[in-house]
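Help wanted!
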Amino acid sequence: MTATVVSAKGLTKRYGSFTAVDAVDFTLEENRIYGLLGRNGAGKTTIMQLLTGQLFANAGDLEVFGRTPAEHADVLRRMCFIAESQRYPEDFTPAHVFKAAPWFFENWDAEFAERLIADFRLPVKRRIKKLSRGQLSAVGVIVGLASRAPLTFFDEPYLGLDAVARHIFYDRLLEDYAEHPRTVVLSTHLIDEVANLLEHVILIDEGRILLDRDADEVRGSATTIAGARAAVDAFTADRPVIGREGLGGLASVTIDGRLDQAERIRAAELGLELAPVSLQQLIVHLTGTDLAGSTEQEKAA
Amino acid sequence: MDESRPIFIQITEQIENDIIEGTLAEGAQIPSINEFATFHRINPATALRGVNRLVDDAIVEKRRGIGMFVTSGARDRLVERRRAEFAATYIRPLIVEAEKLGLDIDQLAALIRSERIES
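Answered by r_m:
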């Protein structure tokens, strides 16, 4: 039995005439890792700021741990939000940040933080404004992990972190999550890198939810069919097409939906090539300009 | 991990392969969910889903507080099932490709025999 941590209904945020978040409905269940994905300006950060009480919604109902997040200290205390460019007081060092962290996070594990500091080779005595971009990101990642908040948000946490450091982050996140389950929301552009960590994917585009599905369902849920144009067109005629490319007499069409064994054999007999579509490619197709956003609405209709 | 197919299915298949090949003997303990998750860098829920399919098929059994173990007779049942799927998974695509290349059934059989000798 899983408990609902976040419940949003018709959640809307406008800035003047611009609607950043447009009447979205979603829930976050306890102890799952979510991917909040989408292009720049899609509304991901705004949603996270609404959830953490940093912004007020213009319309809709929002409950976090059963209450409105803003002005409820007991709700805010159970959340940790790691922003892309976190600001710290002038003259602060990482050591100051880690010393102050337990005042805000009751589950703070200083020993775990020490291990992470060693993993990331972070100079804790250096002033934060003298740190490199990657080291600054490491400070945020360490706070996010060692705080063990029941609801943790990582908003593009690793600007400037190299591949080694990012993999340290993924490994430590998984290990610690396994031992101390909690709800994690990961917002990132590096979709291929995090795809396997996610249990559930929420894809946002222009303030709306384009896709809200378990990662296992999403994986392999689309297929690219390539070959002679006539054969490809015949094969994909009655299917939901989400992407289309062509070169001379050749065509490559991406469809939403799994192919069964019989269909695969038929495709092979027609001389068609079938290629898997990764989560990242699927998202490019769904949020790209060509045929954006037709699938989930069609399903809802 | 192969991106095209659900990862929990790949976890199931990998454990099945280990049992068929004998890397995991009957009665042996299999790694824990968290060990699978951190080793493959996947979500523990995904690993659990993969292992639970084996529990449902009685290939693996859970012993409360101890861990998960390969059941007796698991290997025979897996081999039997894989044999039943063999034609659809391997033979059918092979014939399709052979026909495309103009190889008849005797040539195909001869090719299989020669490969067998070489390996």
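OP: Thanks! One thing I noticed: The CA atoms of residues 27 and 70 of chain B lie 5 Å apart.
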